[in-house]
Structures are given as C-alpha cells and as structure tokens.
Design a protein that fits this description.
This protein has 2 domains: 145 residues, PK beta-barrel domain-like (M1 Pyruvate Kinase, Domain 3); 90 residues, no CATH class. It is mainly beta. Helices cover 12% and strands 32% of the residues. The chain contains 3 helices and 15 strands.
C-alpha cells in the first residue's frame, strides 16, 4: 500500500518550508500558497507591468545563497502573513504584499546572502493565478521515501528530506519506482494527478536545511550512483480534492 507520509509547502520560493497535515488541491493549479511569492534581484527579468512565469534564475535561491536553505516558515492564510525562522536570526513576521513589510524582510534576509554575490535581494513579487514553481506549468512535486533512503545509504548517513523541497512524500513504492509513473495518473486521497517528468536537481540540495551550510554533495551522489541528477517527479493536478497525511495513493 502506498501512503502519504509528509506534505510541505514553501510560501516564498527558496525562503522557508512548512509541514502540513492536509491540503486541498485545485485542478490546474500548484499547491495552494506554495511558491506564491519569490524574491527578486537586480538581474530579475520579471515584469510587474506584464506578470508572467519566468525561470528560477530570476529569483534569489539557495543556489546563489545557500544559507537560505536554513529558513523555516509558517503561513497564516487568514491574515496573509508569514513568520520566518533561521538559526542565525530573530524570527520575522511580515506581510509579503505590504511595501513597508517587504523592506523589513529585505533587511532581515540580507545577512544570509553572500556579500560578494552580485545577486542580492531587492523585492518580492507574485503571480495572481499560480505558484512560481520551477516548471512553466503549475506543478506539484512528488517524492519517494524509499529513493531518499537509497541516497542516504550511498551517502553513509541519514540526511534531511527537506533538502529536496518536495510537496508530497509517498511511502510504499520501491526505490526509484516513481520513474515508472511518468505519463500515468495517480489518485492520492481525493485528488488525481498526472505524472509529467523527473525533477533535475540543483546546488540548493547540498545545503543543510537547519544551518544553511553546504555539507553533502547530493548532486555527485546522484551522478556517481545513478548517472543522472534527478530526484522526485513533477505532476499536474487534473482533478482537485483533499489530501491528508496517511491517505493512500493508487496508480490509475
């Protein structure tokens, strides 16, 4: 039996993660409030006058600033405020759509960004109709706990699943069985998702999610053992519905 073991959302792209007990998915949309906002830098090509999806390199991520991986988040969807936590900083609660609060956020997060990097945070943007996922379509990321365990075995120690920044974690699949699901539909809880493609990984996964220090070369482990740089799969929601921890999943 395949079951849901973890649900995560990331309200601000690359700036914190939040564990959930349940989520209500909507057809054609990314996970609600996941990557709803993103942090811009001077080279960002996003146009507020003509807002549309752009690639992840246009935003501040842990690839440029690994300490960002150490941020945890709590989002209040009633007040539209986010509380961010990092081991090196005091907690910050702010509204990412408020101009004054954005300035407070920039001041808070700047110490986590390398001073010698030309990419420094200068604002927050959002899209009105979708999350700012790494795909040009609204996607949900699904991860296999057994595959994570195999990577940990090759590394030689347990390491944090939060590095992969997944939305839905499943247990009960064989290691790497998720690749066999590409092109198929899977029902998870009351929702149905279509598996689209593997997720190619970047340097952010090398950073510890508690400290933001790069301490595991995840990319080398993937390449040396499996001849690729992929972990997890992207899916589209084709039928909305509620997913809760402990729900079962079935390939259709």
């Amino acid at each position: 039996m395949i079951t849901v073991t973890h649900l995560w959302r990331h309200p601000i792209k690359s700036h914190g993660r939040e564990a959930l007990a349940f989520v209500d998915l909507v057809a054609g949309q990314s996970m609600p409030w996941d990557r709803r906002w993103a942090v811009t830098h001077v080279d960002c090509k996003f146009q507020t006058t003509d807002p549309h999806w752009v690639m992840c390199r246009n935003f501040m991520t842990g690839t440029f600033a690994p300490k960002l991986a150490g941020i945890w988040a709590t989002f209040d969807d009633k007040t539209k405020t986010i509380t961010l936590r990092h081991a090196e900083l005091d907690d910050l609660s702010f509204a990412p759509d408020d101009t004054d609060d954005i300035a407070r956020f920039i001041a808070w997060v700047s110490p986590l960004c390398p001073v010698d990097n030309i990419r420094i945070p200068n604002g927050i943007i959002t899209l009105p109709d979708r999350g700012l996922t790494d795909t040009d379509y609204p996607s949900i990321s699904i991860h296999n706990a057994a595959s994570h365990a195999e990577v940990a075995e090759r590394i030689g120690r347990q390491f944090e699943m939060e590095r992969w920044r997944g939305n839905i974690w499943l247990d009960g699949l064989a290691p790497w069985q998720e690749w066999d699901l590409i092109g198929q539909d899977i029902q998870i809880g009351a929702a149905t998702l279509r598996i689209k493609e593997p997720i190619k990984r970047c340097m952010l996964t090398t950073a510890n999610p508690n400290t933001g220090v790069r301490d595991v070369d995840t990319l080398a482990v993937l390449r040396d053992n499996w001849d690729h740089q992929n972990f997890g799969i992207y899916a589209e929601v084709i039928r909305g519905g509620k997913i809760s921890l402990g729900d079962t999943a079935e390939v259709l």
